[in-house]
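Hi V.,

You were right to ask for the full record rather than a summary. Here it is.
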Amino acid sequence: WRVTHDGYTLMRALPMDFPDDRGVYNINDAFMFGPSFLVHPVTRPMFRFAPPPAATIPATALRTPDGKPGLAGQYFEGMNFETPKGTTVDATVDQRWPGPPLTDIPAGLSSLNNFSARWTGSVVAPEDGEYELGVEGDDGFRLIVAGKVLVEDWSMGAARYKGAKITLTKGQTVPVTLEFFQGSGNRSVRLAWRTPTQIAEMANHKEEIDTSMRTYLPQGAAWYDFWTNERFKGGTTVTKAVPLDILPLYVRAGAIVPMGPVVQYATERPGADYEVRIYPGADGRFTVYEDDNETYNYEKGQYATYDLSWNDATRTLSIGARKGTYPGLVKTRKLNIVVVSPQNATGLSPAVTTRSLNYTGKAVAMRF
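Predicted structure:
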């Protein structure tokens, strides 16, 4: 309602709501949803761990055909080496080309779309053993080692990595050719490897499963864990176990949170009761917005609102008079008021109602 009516921002970085708390300035993975909810999405792996990416082959292990560090490159217009253009020597092949002005177009090319490139030279093995040589690219790539195609994915597609094993001896020099084409959209290519030492380290490394998340709760408010209703002071960092069915979600003290029934579609139960949760500890306010849940008639003014206000000192909930109307308005709705506690209204579980009211659109106040 506030987003469409007042230009409010539904999802906001924490400094927008807590500008005086310097502790939130560098937090970029937790957000406010509305004025009441702080959500901290789980964005790191907890159960299935991807191996670390293969390292870019360094210049010390690359030689151009004339013996210089790096590989010799040739750019072509066209995706199949049609028209030779500029040449280059790259110490490493790790190109991303985000586009001007962030990077220059390669020498001789007129565009960062519909081109191809070929790098030639040699790889020098720093140790004995089995290596993995590979390419990460967007779009197509092909790696030829000692005259044989070792890795190939000559197709349009987002950035992905492919590698293959090869056994080398220390000091061995093997000729390599890396071919690449770019169609349109994002573009990148990287020549990478895993040395025998890196492969052994990866095999011996065991990731520790950590299913907890540390969340900083801003100063200036008290906070409730949505799942347990445990209360915390602002300015503290909370560690919480987060299995697959739980994410860190905290509710600001003073929040008024109306909740409807579980439905399969918006107009399934228009007259259902509302559960109104109150999180005590501060004054709060919430505007309930209702329309027909189906049409754009709200743009013509066909909607209704009423305000809920919580006075924490007197523990009074004031429900304002209804404003507006629309076809199908539910004239009398049961409001089940719940003052949350650690024993009641935790998470999504059914709550025990503290007091109930059949709201008819008239202003009323209730003390708790």
